[in-house]
Amino acid sequence: MGNLPEGEAFDPLVARWGSCPARSGYGPMGIPQPCSSGQHYAMALKDRMRNVGRVIDSLSDRNAELHRQIKEIRAGVAPEAVATIEQHASDLEAEAMHLRARYPDLKVAEDPFASFPEDLGIDMPEEVPFEYSADVPEK
Q: Which residues form a coiled coil (predicted)?
């Protein structure tokens, strides 16, 4: 930068690309000409897009591999899980038969939460207000 030409304050501000050789690619003082700098940015953009394409290909391959592994796991786990559940169910049935033999007079109580059709005829309010107060009732 020490060899810059001296100028005066009243000199016009004009581009001096015309004084550069057409094929050199660089203007005065080693500054790239617009066409070569445009090529530089275009190549940088192409390199960036190529790298992004490689990343996308890599992620796509990894995604396909994970899908394949999930399918293998689902196919392999299903028969094992069914066999385990069937074994557990048969064990519970055997235990129930053992309890029935040991306690023949044992009766199972009705489910208190079961719905019975005879309960449908009872008059009950649709909405029951809830008391939100924090007061403790007196004894």
A: 56-102
